[in-house]
Predict the structure of Invertase/pectin methylesterase inhibitor domain superfamily.
Amino acid sequence: MKMMKVMMLIVMMMMVSEGSIIEPTCKETPDFSLCVSLLNSDPRGSSADTSGLALILIDKIKGLATKTLNEINGLYKKRPELKRALDECSRRYKTILNADVPEAIEAISKGVPKFGEDGVIDAGVEASVCQGGFNGRSPLTSLTKSMQKISNVTRAIVRMLL
């Protein structure tokens, strides 16, 4: 067990010495484990700067929004009684994909992180509004909570650029 801890420490030190800023950056977010997991799952993470990490997480927001929108589309057939709430969620997740994500990517890429933060915050708000439309019985709860968590982590990293 002690040897395992030593090995983990060596690996972590090697990562830091190779220039990875994932762990120190993720320590400044509200969910260290989620942050590290998301950034380590992308090959760009190990060599990215803070802006690059933010862009990776914005890509994760985009991927989750796409997945959620696909789930919504499937639910129309399975749960027609939820049409009104699903319509609202569909609009919300299309906003994430068509407005929030592009705004955030453009802002971070152009060095204007404040507008990137706005897009990231809005993604979390859109997910929250979607969730609320089901009056406590949402079939999308795990996806909307994931969007809120990823948005919060991303926002913390974008704020480091301000």
